[in-house]
């Protein structure tokens, strides 16, 4: 629906922001969920004082990260939009900046509160938060972020003609709040370390997602491939959710045996073989098999829902479903394998996988998912599976 709104038509760079900002939930909320799940599982949130300290420090931290990454994502969108076409509009650049920073900030605030509630609730009910918190963060993250981005960018686009000063004011307001969040995050020992060292994965992940956004922008802008817009959040969301659950589980499993960097029996591997990742009797290998098997029924439900709601511009033919499923299975297979290697590699390098692995994995999920989907649409077009109703 959103691809037909004026702001998406006339400021197409907003498409580049979509994977970068939807990816933020992977960078921030899912790492928050993974961090707090591990803390809950190893008993660091049992007293009210410890709990309050963890909550305030972590909420302040994700506000800092959201504001900075939202700002950088808008710069990336401006650059990626400017390079292919060669024209630059300062009004559009400020609109992108204001939309991106406001969306990132508000989405992180809302999702952070939901995450804390879910983790405390899971703990009280005796459920492992690792299995619940990360997928909820991922799915709600997509919905809330996309709704906010479209609403805010549409509102600010409307203001461009009559009140041009609104956009710079919005940027300045959220950036001015930064010092307050930095001071609060610094007071907590657990978040202070992430405040100093946790930028690299978040920023690299945003850049990777922006490349996925560039692919999306180029593909959706072509009327022949307008149908891709409806499937992109689905394929990226499912891949990101599944790999985040796996990374969070492996990380908690490693934390239970010691601290990052300690050579334990659980993390001896350099680069695992596909057999050890998917076919061994190890507990993490079993969960990888379960997560991989969820792909087909999960996507069939989504495809049926999209079809019954008459969403998108693509007729769901058998050949389309085969290509789509192949792309989805390949994406999750690659991601689960990379997760198994990456979490153990980071653990051996004295890096906490809760903070470092999920941003990379969800961003790679966005890039691989968007790339494979675009490739599928191009192949289908070449072999003659062309929809008569594309663009209706």
Automatic annotation (TrEMBL):
Gene3D superfamilies: SLC41 divalent cation transporters, integral membrane domain (1.10.357.20). GO terms for cellular component: plasma membrane. The keyword Transmembrane applies. It holds the Pfam family MgtE. Keywords: Ion transport, Magnesium, Membrane, Transmembrane, Transmembrane helix, Transport. GO terms for biological process: metal ion transport. Belongs to the SLC41A transporter family. This is Solute carrier family 41 member. The lineage of its organism: Eukaryota, Metazoa, Chordata, Craniata, Vertebrata.
């Amino acid at each position: 629906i959103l691809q037909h709104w004026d702001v998406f038509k006339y400021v197409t760079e907003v498409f580049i922001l979509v994977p970068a900002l939807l990816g933020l939930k992977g960078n921030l909320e899912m790492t928050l969920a993974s961090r707090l799940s591990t803390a809950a599982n190893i008993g660091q949130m049992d007293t009210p004082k410890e709990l309050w300290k963890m909550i305030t420090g972590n909420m302040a931290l994700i506000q800092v990260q959201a504001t900075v990454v939202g700002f950088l994502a808008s710069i990336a969108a401006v650059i990626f939009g400017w390079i292919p076409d060669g024209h630059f509009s300062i009004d559009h650049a400020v609109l992108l900046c204001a939309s991106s920073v406001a969306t990132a900030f508000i989405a992180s605030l809302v999702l952070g509160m939901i995450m804390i509630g879910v983790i405390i609730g899971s703990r009280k009910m005796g459920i492992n938060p690792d299995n619940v918190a990360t997928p909820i963060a991922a799915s709600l993250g997509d919905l809330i972020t996309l709704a906010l981005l479209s609403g805010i960018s549409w509102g600010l686009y409307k203001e461009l003609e009559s009140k041009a000063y609104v956009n710079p004011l919005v940027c300045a307001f959220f950036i001015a709040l930064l010092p307050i969040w930095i001071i609060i995050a610094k007071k907590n020992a657990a978040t202070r370390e992430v405040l100093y060292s946790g930028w690299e994965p978040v920023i690299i992940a945003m850049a990777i997602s922006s490349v996925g956004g560039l692919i999306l922008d180029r593909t959706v802008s072509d009327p022949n491939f307008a149908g891709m817009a409806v499937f992109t959040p689905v394929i990226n969301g499912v891949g990101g959710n599944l790999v985040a659950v796996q990374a969070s589980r492996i990380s908690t499993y490693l934390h239970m045996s010691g601290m990052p960097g300690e050579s334990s029996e659980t993390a001896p591997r350099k680069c695992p073989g596909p057999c050890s990742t998917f076919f061994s009797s190890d507990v993490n290998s079993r969960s990888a098999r379960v997560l991989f098997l969820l792909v087909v029924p999960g996507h069939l439900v989504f495809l049926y829902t999209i079809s019954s709601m008459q969403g998108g511009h693509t007729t769901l033919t058998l050949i389309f479903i085969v290509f789509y499923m192949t792309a989805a299975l390949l994406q999750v297979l690659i991601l689960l394998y990379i997760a198994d290697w990456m979490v153990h590699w980071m653990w051996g390098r004295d890096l906490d996988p809760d903070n470092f692995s999920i941003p990379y994995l969800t961003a790679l999920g966005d890039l691989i998912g968007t790339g494979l989907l675009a490739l599928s649409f191009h192949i289908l077009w070449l072999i003659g599976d062309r929809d008569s109703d594309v663009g209706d």
